[in-house]
Amino acid sequence: MKRYLSMLIVILAAACSAPKPPGDYKTMLSFGPGEEAKILEAFLSLTDSSSIELKEGLYKFDNLSLVQLKHISIKGAGPDKTILDFSGQTQGGEGIRVSEVKDFSISGITLRESKGDLLKINKSENVRITDLHTVWKAMDSSNGGYGIYPVLCNDVLIENCYAEGASDAGIYVGQTNKAVVKNCKAYKNVAGCEIENTTHAEVFDNEFYGNTSGFLIFDLPDLSQRGGHVKAYNNYIHDNNERNFAKSGSFGTTWGVGNAAPGSGVIIQATSDIELYNNRIVNNNSSAIIIVSGFFVDSKAGEKIKASYFPVSKNIYIHDNTLEMGPGFPEPVFAHHTGKILVAIEQQLNQQDASRKGARIPLILYDGISTNVITKEQKINPDSICIKQTGNNLFVNADALNIGTKNWRPGTDMTAFSCK
């Protein structure tokens, strides 16, 4: 009998802690255009287990905020019907800020033209973002950094969303555990999508196009956790050749997305346990895939090593992708600091080997900076960079530590990095 009671208590406790069904709300509120003051009041006074419906129409706000709640839903009539406009902001930077909310969903809405991030979700759990659009129409450094921005969260789904015009990343997942980004589109952002210092993420069935760079998987120093264990597959990453319009300062610093060269398809930097497969990565005309260490952008990266950061990319598995590149670099690359390095690599390869006859920079670029730079060893491929791709002009080891010296010899021998 005691054993039975103990089991019953465990079952009941688990049931109480589990997320509630999506439609199970104690309070259900509905508003239409012209009721912005009532909506703001509702956000400020909302209680646990509440849903807010926003009917079709245009709404204008300074900002909206939700803090320390459970089981909350915000739902519009569809992203082409329910529009929240923040262009007239006089206070606050973000459009909607959600902090410390458990079981949060938002769907069926377009957010546009805030001064800061359009949707920031901080320290929250069981987050569902679906059928949401975030838009700044102009590609301008005055735009907010992020369209969709969950950070320091657990269990995030971003599905059927669209992001445009962010001066950092349209869709960004940062310092989060367990995330899925699927069936989304990102267009005319600096980075279409970025997974940063995030663990156990899957990114699939998306289209990232017309950005500066299509898709970034980064670990940066001085953050709360180390990322890794990211799978990206069945994505269409194409025509990311636009100028980099990242903000100066926080977004354009040594570590920021300001380093992304125009024409970059995928950039993997200072992270580990990444699998990139079955993607179409085409017409990103500076490089299809770039694998670099933190040393590539900061010579002092080794001084930043700690439990939450290691500067060398490790355990990278790239296989079975479709990779193609156009006949020349996009024009914005020639004015960009990292872009100039890519141009120089192409030129150096062709000067070294006349048989290349003016060939393009190879599709996959590896900076060649391994943990040997830290351990002072001479191991071959100590960081398990594994590439299983077919085709010509596929790979370049940029020999980045010697760029600018007479010893600089980028090479195209992929033997050490071919999957065994």
TrEMBL record:
Q: Which InterPro entries match?
A: Beta_helix, PbH1, Pectin_lyas_fold, Pectin_lyase_fold/virulence, SO_2930-like_dom
Q: Which Gene3D superfamilies match?
A: Single-stranded right-handed beta-helix, Pectin lyase-like
Span of domain Right handed beta helix: 142-294
| Protein's name according to its UniProt entry | Parallel beta-helix repeat-containing protein
Recall the taxonomic lineage recorded for the source organism: Bacteria, Pseudomonadati, Bacteroidota, Chitinophagia, Chitinophagales
